[in-house]
Amino acid sequence: MTNTAEQARIGIDDYLAGEETAPIKHEYVAGEVFAMAGAGEAHVTVAGNLFALLRNHVRGGPCRVYIADMKVRVEQADAFYYPDVFVTCDPADSREKRFKRNPTLVIEVLSDSTAAFDRGAKFAHYRQLDSLLEYVLIEPERPLVDIFRRNAEGGWVLHPVAEDGELVFAAVDFRCPLAAVYEDVALG
Predict the structure, then answer these.
(1) For the whole model, what pTM was predicted?
(2) Which CATH number does the domain housing residue 86 bear?
(3) Whole-angstrom distance between the N-terminal and C-terminal Cα of the chain?
């Protein structure tokens, strides 16, 4: 008898080919594919604000900023994720058009359905990337930002941002008032 709860695994090539034409995005972990839910207004606004601020900051330099539709490959976890915003400064990433392998900074705007995964298993996967120096988690409807920064020993240290504080991404020498991240967001 077949167990209908079992899910067939998919290969990486099939996953990447499917993403080219899929009407919705999917993340991939060890052969399993997970549909991504849509985001609300606050989520999209916060991600857009960060993209605009970071894009302005890195313009003319070696780093590139991506938002929502570009994948990050975590080979050690056999995974592909779609971070809300990320920065890569590795020239090798410019040669691959479907995904990037070496992000320096990854930002996830949290939602009720993904917060536990973003704080847990996904962060555990991202920590395996040697290139990653900062991992940022942002609450979209209240001014709450946690920055996890890799220290010299390779450990991760939490740097929470005060509600009236300054957002600092040391990995890309960026800073701005936290209020700029939440511009045009109705805070709850």
Answers:
(1) 0.91
(2) 3.90.1570.10
(3) 51
